[in-house]
Design a protein that fits this description.
The complex is a heterodimer of chains A (265) and B (61). Chain A has no helices and 24 strands. By secondary structure, chain A is mainly β. In chain B, strands 1-4-3 form a three-stranded antiparallel sheet, with no helix packed on it. The radius of gyration of chain B is 13 Å and the shape is flat. The chains are: A mainly beta (265), B mainly beta (61). Chains A and B meet through β1, β2, β21, β22 and β23 of A and β1, β2, β3 and β4 of B.
C-alpha cells in the first residue's frame, strides 16, 4: 500500500481513476466549487474545475496521460504534460449543455448533450474527439447518462423512459443493446465498461429498500450486494474482469473485492 | 480525522479477484477490505494490473 500526500484543504476527495502507469486522479468539491488533482511521477498537479452544480464531476485519463474533465459550461481536453497545463476546450459540441463523462485509452470521449434530431431538441449521447462527434439516443429516452467507453468505442450508460423506469444500454457504433435491471430498478448508474464489454454499475430497487451493484456480461445480470438506499455505490472493473465495489454513505465508506465463489475463477 | 489517498496493489491478496483467470462467474462474493483494521475506505478505481486507488479515512488522524 502506498499513501499519497495529503490534499491541501481538501474535503471529500474521490478517486476517479488510476491509470496503467499508476498515476491517480480525482476530484473534491467544496460548496459549489470543485477541484481536480493528479498524482503523477511523485508530484501533485492541482487545478480548478470551476463552479459546478453536479454531484459527480468527471475526470479521466487516456493512455497518453492526457486528461479530460468537464465543468459547468465547457467540455475540456487538456494535455497536462504541456508547459502551462492550460486546458483546451474541445469543439464540435453544443456549448454550455455538454458533459463529457468518460474517455478511453485513445482519447475518444463519451458523454451527454442536448442536440437536434430533425426538429426535435432532445437529450443525446455523443462519442468522438477533437471536433468530430457522433450523436445518438435510445428511443424514448427522457434522460441519459454515460458511464464508460472502452477501447472499442463501445459506450455503456443508463436511460430513463417516460414511465419512469430506467434501463442500461450498450451502444456499439450507433446500434443500441438494452438491458433491464431486476426489481423495478430506478436510478440506474453505469460506472464502467471494460474492453470485454462487461458493464458494471448500481441501481436502486423500485421499492427504494436497497441499492445494489451489478455486473452485466452481455448475457445476464449478476447482482453485487445490498446496501442502504442512500448509499453511493461505485463498481470499478478492469480489462481482466477484476472488480472492486465501494459503498459510501452516512456510515462512512466500505469497499469490497468482488470474488468468484465457483471453482475455475 | 484525516483522509488520505491510497494506492494499493491487488497482487498479494489471499482472495483471488473474480475474472483474473477467466472461467465461470455465476456467483460473486464481496470480500470486505480493511487496512490495518480500518475499513472506512472508498476504493473507486482499478487499473489493468489490478492496482486500486481510493480514499482512506483515518479516525485517529
Amino acid at each position: 500500500m502506498r499513501l499519497l500526500p495529503g490534499l491541501n484543504g481538501c474535503c471529500a476527495p474521490v478517486v476517479r481513476f488510476i491509470d496503467n502507469l499508476g498515476d491517480v486522479g480525482g476530484t473534491n468539491c467544496e460548496s459549489m466549487t470543485c477541484f481536480g488533482w493528479i498524482f503523477r511521477h511523485g508530484k501533485q498537479i492541482g487545478f480548478s474545475l470551476g463552479d459546478y452544480d453536479a454531484s459527480r464531476p468527471s475526470l479521466m485519463a487516456d493512455a497518453n496521460g492526457d486528461v479530460a474533465y468537464d465543468s459547468v459550461a465547457h467540455v475540456m481536453h487538456t494535455p497536462f504534460m504541456g508547459p502551462d497545463h492550460k486546458p483546451e476546450m474541445d469543439v464540435g459540441l453544443p456549448g454550455g449543455v455538454s458533459s463529457v463523462q468518460s474517455m478511453n485509452a485513445r482519447g475518444v470521449m463519451a458523454g451527454t448533450t442536448l442536440a437536434f434530431f430533425g426538429r426535435l431538441l432532445q437529450c443525446a449521447m455523443f462519442v468522438g474527439r477533437r471536433g468530430h462527434f457522433a450523436f445518438s439516443a435510445p428511443p424514448g429516452a427522457t434522460s441519459i447518462s454515460v458511464g464508460g467507453i472502452n477501447d472499442a468505442d463501445e459506450v455503456a450508460g443508463g436511460f430513463r423512459e417516460e414511465s419512469g423506469l430506467e434501463h442500461g444500454f450498450l451502444e456499439r457504433h450507433g446500434a443500441f443493446q438494452f438491458f433491464t435491471l431486476p426489481q423495478g430498478a430506478t436510478e440506474v448508474t453505469v460506472t464502467a465498461i471494460n474492453d470485454a464489454g462487461r458493464v458494471v454499475g448500481s441501481y436502486l430497487e423500485g421499492t427504494k429498500q436497497a441499492r445494489h451493484g451489478f455486473l452485466y456480461d452481455n448475457t445476464s445480470i449478476i447482482i453485487l450486494g445490498a446496501f442502504a438506499p442512500n448509499d453511493e455505490v461505485n463498481v470499478a472493473i478492469n480489462d481482466r474482469g477484476d472488480m472492486v465495489l465501494s459503498a459510501t454513505g452516512s456510515h462512512g465508506a466500505r469497499s469490497y473485492w468482488a470474488t468468484c465463489s465457483v471453482s475455475g475463477c | 480525522m484525516t483522509t488520505m489517498i491510497i494506492r494499493l496493489a491487488l497482487l498479494g491478496f489471499l482472495v483471488p479477484p473474480c475474472g483474473a483467470t477467466g472461467g465461470p462467474r455465476t456467483t460473486i462474493r464481496l470480500a470486505p477490505i480493511a487496512i490495518h483494521g480500518n475499513n472506512d475506505i472508498a476504493i473507486t478505481a482499478i487499473n489493468g494490473s489490478g492496482a486500486v486507488a481510493g480514499v482512506l479515512t483515518d479516525p485517529a488522524g
